[in-house]
Amino acid sequence: MHHFDRSFILPRRKGSRYACAPTVALILALSACTPALPPSSGHSAATEAKATPSALQATFDTAEGIERIEPGLAAAQAWLDAGEVQRAGNVLEKLADIPGTIDQQARYAVLMAETRLAQNRPLDARRWLERGAEGLPASWQARRLRALDRMAEANTPAPSAESVALPDPNTHLVATLLPVSGRWSAAGQAIQDGILRAYLEESPSRRPTLRFFPVTEQSVSVEAAARDALALGARSVIGPLDKAMVEKAAAVIPPSVPMIALNRIDQARPGLFQFGLPPEDEARIVAQQAMTLGHRRAWVIAPASEWGTRLHSAFGDTFAAQGGEVLHITRYDAAQSDFQAALREGLAQASDADMIFLAAFMFQAQLLQPQIRFVGGGNLPIYATSAVYGQPAKRDGSTDLNGVRFPDMPWLLSADPAVAPAVARLQALGIDAYRVWHQLASVPQPDAVSMVGATGTLALDSDGRIIRRDLPWAHFSDGTVQPGLPVEDAPVTVP
């Protein structure tokens, strides 16, 4: 069976009921997520539970082509559960060259990992588990976690005296509070991938004990997960993701246990470090870059929504504080497709503008940019946030977004172009959350924390907020994203 998902899985310590959750996410400025992919319609746990291994094997033997996948996976699962490792391996070997769906690939990887563990080949098992869990049905998640447990028992790195700058891996437990169900689950899964990637990039002697405490909207509250983590000796916490959950966790976790929250809340307190990807940060960076290039008069185009208000306010406040002026704000209805009337009125009100700040997601930007040109605003450079880059750019020669400039995180601009930008951004957030923990653990004064990370250049402000202060720039050109600003973006002459 062909596999193409590339994720990273963590060996975890023996004896805990918590482990790693699956992967993949989609986010729109950390305000909404798409649900995880559903399981294949041909997969039925109830049917498998009633069938014997021999019966499932017989069904597999008589099937052909892709119709062999479901009975094959069911047969391999049944043989493994019966302790018949060789028979399971034989079935899986026959499935190896049959292309399957994402969820079939995920189940196949779990079964291959179980087979390799039973054959005392933990490194091979790890390679299968590193393929991730995109599309893995919920009923299979517990099975995958058990495989992680067994892999950890067989292959937990021995502690070393190589490093003294960081806490002893045997004694420092870092707990992560990430969602595994509900509207935030997909985002939590991608962030976990990033945390695990950063973890595995380190030498074993520098790794803490890392445990995942799943948070669900139905059964495991964030308060309960936080208390469990503290009871098991957690000395640092990464998460949660949802703003309301951050507030609840912060009320349970004492200031003596550093907490790197993955969202921002209104309250600040000692020991709470707030790290997220608020779109306002990028709007401020756009304003600063525009001023650097000599722009002083802006026409702002933003949706008539809370998100749009946040962006145009952040841009406008920063732009004005540095001497710029917002001539007009055009608010558009994101549910519509014809914006010409609003754009004509806006251009008339901002006839002296020397730039446009466009707050839009990719789909709206693809509609707005041609209409801006059509009403006569095509001579104005357009600056946006990374929201305009919401899916892999198509090399189709499209000019809908030509010239639109936007800042984005270093990780995204160097990531695999086949990976959805929304997923890559969340993975980068996980990478930097883990690296920030490392810095907090190794410096005597937390306010000295600064780093060039996967999400940008990071610094800590006086309220414990981790701020992205600098981002690389990119622009669209003929359907592709190109690094840097267009060549025509030399500083303009300021009158």
TrEMBL record:
Keywords recorded for this protein, A-Z:
Cell outer membrane, Cell shape, Lipoprotein, Membrane, Palmitate, Peptidoglycan synthesis, Signal
| Superkingdom field | Bacteria
Q: Which PROSITE patterns match?
A: PROKAR_LIPOPROTEIN
Which residues constitute the signal peptide according to the record? none
Q: Does the keyword Hydrolase apply?
A: no
Tell me the organism: Candidatus Macondimonas diazotrophica
Q: GO molecular function of the protein, one example?
A: enzyme regulator activity
Gene3D superfamilies, per the entry? 3.40.50.2300, Tetratricopeptide repeat domain
What is the protein name given in its UniProt record? Penicillin-binding protein activator
Does ATP-binding appear among the keywords?
no
PANTHER family, sorted: PENICILLIN-BINDING PROTEIN ACTIVATOR LPOA
